[in-house]
Amino acid sequence: AAGTGEFEAGISKNGQTREHALLAFTLGVKQLIVGVNKMDSTEPPYSESRFEEIKKEVSSYIKKIGYNPAAVAFVPISGWHGDNMLEQSTKMPWFKGWQIERKEGKAEGKCLIEALDAILPPARPTDKALRLP
Where is 36: in which H helix or E strand? Predict the structure, then answer.
C-alpha cells in the first residue's frame, strides 16, 4: 500500500510484504506482479515519486530473494477508485505502462488486468509419473 507509513510497515524487518515475497519464492512461484495499491492516499494523491520509491525498494528486496526485477510488472493502482485496474487511469498520466523481460519473451501493458493476462501458465509434465503425497 502506498499510503503514508503503510509501505514502510510492510517492508520493515518482519513486515508482511517481505514475508509474502519470501513465501512466494520459497513455494516456487516463478512469476510476480507488484500492484502498488492506495495510490489515491499518497501525498500528493497519485504521486509518481512515491511509486518510484516503492518500486525501487521492492525491486531491491525481491532481487535479494532470487527474483529478477526486470521480469516483474510494477503497476500503480487504486482499488477503491478502480484506477489502472481494467484500463489506464487518467489520474496517473506519468505512468507509461509496465514492461517485463523474461526468457520466453517480452510483455508490456498499461494496467493490472493486462499484467495478469501476461502471466504464462506453468508447464505440466504430463509425460512424467504421477506423484501423490
Answer: strand 33-36
CA distances 116 to 28, 66, 126, Å, are: 18, 21, 25
Q: Yes or no: say if 84 and 42 are a contact pair by the CB < 8 Å rule.
A: no
Sorted by where each starts, the structural domains of the chain and their CATH numbers stand as 6-117 (3.40.50.300)
The predicted-structure confidence for 55-70, as pLDDT tens digits, reads as follows 999 999 999 999 999 9
| DSSP state letters, 78-124 | BTTTTBTTSS--TT-TT---EEEEETTEEEEESSHHHHHHTPPPPP-
Q: Using one digit for the tens of pLDDT, what is the confidence trace for 99-115?
A: 999 999 999 999 999 99
Cα distance between residue 67 and residue 28, in whole Å? 11
